[in-house]
């Protein structure tokens, strides 16, 4: 039942994301900044898993020193070995965003509770996107049970402050000072991070999903074009997953070595659905040797995100393109 519930929750989150962002397909084709008559129209880079094959920086990984670990499988434990120097026995950070089939999972793994991996200690996973993206969803598939408490943070500019995006916890009030049942009402600040206890049970012991839809529960989501606040809310240049408290059966109290080695964090997939942010003025982002990833700007706009008008096209103020107008920059 838990697996089907998680699957339904993930499907609902993805369907909402597709409705809110991918409904953009009803306008002119997104791979062109011009309509069939040659007029200028809103355009966007493709929707993709922006985490795929990106390097995730982790604050902890098993295998240095090599260690035994045991998988919780209910009434029994199967024990294995993690060795960072052995290609067949390491669980490094590259395995978070690699390609793999469900029948042959790969996963990143932290050290075990034997090494002190438990609250108040945290394990951090940091994804640097290299440019501003508009994020639709963040999905984590855990190889072990899902954490009792973890949080998602974002930055909107390089070296900017980390801002809370979402909290997951069976102890929202105690751990994060948040109400687990809170929601955002019309008129509230829609950039508020919420906390839920929905995905914090120790069951299932493996394969549990968590999917965070950035616009779910935001009253202005269905009027996204006119919401400056939500455009800011979905924008991120970096993401941080803070794994704050392991789920346990309470048996670690006795300090048995095999028990301590059976509790650790492990994630088989870290996916981020989104688009390179170009404000509706580019259909692709390209790599430039001296600047990294930037939008290939159209509509007489310039900037990494097409966020201003070309110096010779400033007859009216810059504006983001909408479904009704490309809002191209005009010359005097």
From TrEMBL:
The keyword Mitochondrion does not apply. SMART domains: EGF_Lam (SM00180), LamNT (SM00136). Pfam families: EGF_LMN_ATRN (PF24973), Laminin_N (PF00055). Keywords: Disulfide bond, Glycoprotein, Laminin EGF-like domain, Repeat, Signal. One of its GO terms (cellular component) is basement membrane. It comes from the Eukaryota. Residues 1-28 form the signal peptide. Residues 39-275 form the Laminin N-terminal domain. CDD domains: EGF_Lam. One of its GO terms (biological process) is tissue development. InterPro entries: Galactose-bd-like_sf (IPR008979), Laminin/Netrin_ECM (IPR050440), Laminin_N (IPR008211), LE_dom (IPR002049), LMN_ATRN_NET-like_EGF (IPR056863). Transmembrane segments: none annotated. This is Laminin N-terminal domain-containing protein. It comes from Zoarces viviparus (Viviparous eelpout). The lineage of its organism: Eukaryota, Metazoa, Chordata, Craniata, Vertebrata.
